[in-house]
Amino acid sequence: MKKRDSLGARLRYGFDKSMAAGPIALIGWLAVVSLLIIIAAAAFLAVTRIAPEGGEPLNFFEAFWESLMRTLDSGTMGGDTGWAFRIVMLVVTLAGIFVVSALIGVLSAGVDGKLDELRKGRSRVLESDHTIILNWSPSIFDVISELVIANASRRRPRIVVMANMDKVAMEDEIAAKVGKLGNTRIICRSGDPTDLYDLAIVNPQTSRSVIVLSPDGDDPDSQVIKTVLALVNDPSRRTDPYNIAAEIRDGKNAEVARVVGGAEVQLVLADQLISRIVVHSSRQSGLSGVYSELLDFDGCEIYTTAQPGLAGKTFGEAVMAYEHCALIGLCDQEGRVNLNPQSELVIGKDMRAIIIAEDDAAIRLGSTAIKIDTAAIRGPRSVEAKPERTLILGWNRRGPIITYELSRYVAPGSILTVAADTPGLEQEVAGLPVAGDNLSVSCRITDTSSSTALASLDVPSYDHVLVLGYSEAMAAQPADTRTLVTLLHLRKIADDAGLHISIVSEMIDVRNRELAAVTKADDFVVSNRLVSLMLAQASENQYLAAIFDDLLDEQGSEIYMRPVADYVAIDQPLTFWTIAQSARLRGEIAIGYRRIRAGDADQRALGGVTVNPPKSEALTYLPEDRIIVLARD
């Protein structure tokens, strides 16, 4: 009795365990039960020699087959004869009906569970060489759009998205806002990117790169840092380093993120990036178009590649060695970036070239005959720095960074006026940090969407006007709407005064840029889009964050737009070779120009900016045209 109880307990334990294990285990148990019933029936028929009426007794194997057929098909017993045989087969058939019914139920439940798992996005990704995007933010649509362009030449590209959202909701939003995906397939999964188990769902071990977005909500940087920590410290992680591009909003958290991610992470400091581009663009009209071109996959990009043919050359010689691309710097073995180094620097065989090109296939040494008009080259002339008056309309968390960056560039005696109606603005402006004593800052509490309030500010008296969105107090669309209203008022003020006012505006949503074009502002810095472009590029180029840190740093080489007449005589058509040589003699690198001509197409809204033009093409320039150079000052 105890043995039977022990056997029954073990069977019950095994069955309960299989119930928890899933459909496969249940199917196995049903198969065992069916086999036991069939064997028992076959043995009973063989021992008792019960047979159909008028038939020969069945041996064990024949009885096994007869029982098996009745277990699988209840209609088989309809032709049985002899009551003893019928009763045995009835028992077998009833048991078979139970088993088959249970099997159908298990299969149905298993299929429903799998479909529900797929709907919830909890199944493991089996892809390899894929790009992973973790977290959800408004930037994700631009990131995906850029990756789709970058993937055009790749075979079977895949982008895997994981966030704390419903899988179907993510797929619907991407389908509605991204548009054409080309040959790229988007795979969405629901999960917590900071959780090791959930990270395993997207299979980072075989990924090409990982992009960590800054999510909405409180303390997004902590979420990003914890996600990077989970990636790089996973006990089951791969031995090869990851290529991680992570977005950090507050620069104060950058050091912690670098400690956590080490050499495997590139940080895109969103607020610093946008603020610096706003400041640079406000001082040089059209500069945002240059940055957009360098960050956009649909045009010229920055590549870091080995160029053995440059070994032994000086950097000055190497700059003039390419016709269809522009050499702008070098990268050493340790990954240190050196933009626009001294012309006399000899390039080592282990150095990598930093090159602007339309495609990596276009990067090749050699060119057609170099045509330089040495007589047209002009020498440098000194320009005296003058005090500047700058007006900021509107305010958000990037305001303090913009103020500090501006104070690093302006001449002594410069003035900054901040006009907005955000709570606590006076106290915040009073405590703004500035570099040195060149810039004095004042505050005006005013409604920047009111024409009367704007008129009282004497806007035409300022050299530069920056319009910031109220992104901290409003959602993206209402904030952009208020910015548009401010820009329309500024346009009317400029028209009434008969003057051109240098205006740079920050837009949050790229879709509003076309609406803002009627305001005739000089530049639009689209916040989310610039961050998205940077993240997408950094996922493909592990040196890009360091390159842009150098480009946007006052201590490094920066991009300037200067009158073409300062470099060459413009009384006749000139090749870009001549302009490049004039810049090289000054220790600068010419990377493009800005020519605005009536009737010229500007399909990409770059404001006449052309980066990396063909050097052998001869063009006629006007005094208002600008040369884009990489220079130290």
UniProtKB/TrEMBL annotation:
<dbReference type="GO" id="GO:0006813">
    <property type="term" value="P:potassium ion transport"/>
</dbReference>
<keyword id="KW-0406">Ion transport</keyword>
<dbReference type="InterPro" id="IPR010420">
    <property type="entry name" value="CASTOR/POLLUX/SYM8_dom"/>
</dbReference>
<dbReference type="InterPro" id="IPR044849">
    <property type="entry name" value="CASTOR/POLLUX/SYM8-like"/>
</dbReference>
<dbReference type="GO" id="GO:0012505">
    <property type="term" value="C:endomembrane system"/>
</dbReference>
<keyword id="KW-0472">Membrane</keyword>
<keyword id="KW-0812">Transmembrane</keyword>
<keyword id="KW-0813">Transport</keyword>
<feature type="domain" description="RCK N-terminal">
    <location>
        <begin position="128"/>
        <end position="267"/>
    </location>
</feature>
<keyword id="KW-1133">Transmembrane helix</keyword>
<dbReference type="Pfam" id="PF06241">
    <property type="entry name" value="Castor_Poll_mid"/>
</dbReference>
<protein>
    <recommendedName>
        <fullName>RCK N-terminal domain-containing protein</fullName>
    </recommendedName>
</protein>
<dbReference type="InterPro" id="IPR003148">
    <property type="entry name" value="RCK_N"/>
</dbReference>
<comment type="similarity">
    <text>Belongs to the castor/pollux (TC 1.A.1.23) family.</text>
</comment>
